[in-house]
Amino acid sequence: MDYFNAFWVGGLICALVQILLEKTKLMPGRIMVMLVCTGAILGAVGVYEPFLKFAGAGASVPLLGFGNVLMKGVKEAVDEQGFLGLFSGGFKAGAVGTSAALIFGYLASLIFNPKMKK
After folding, report:
1. Does any domain span residue 117?
2. Can you give the residue range of the structural domain that contains 56?
């Protein structure tokens, strides 16, 4: 049942984002920022954790999950370091995911030889 919940929740998030892309004049970058901010807000309010337990990877893999990870990192850093944790917590929490995306993107570019569109 965990796989099923992850599949339909992740699919629903992607479908809603696709509808936003096609039915509004919002650019993809703005929608991505909106998703990260929404995940951070839902994490700050405490709504995202139960959602994450229910949906698993369907909730943690999309950009909503990245916003939640950033908020968790900021909360933990503020508890440990005080005010300065606002500036370092998000970087520490998101560093692994961001580094992995950069490394795997670079490796994929070496393997598949990307070309510019003309």
Report:
1. no
2. 2-112
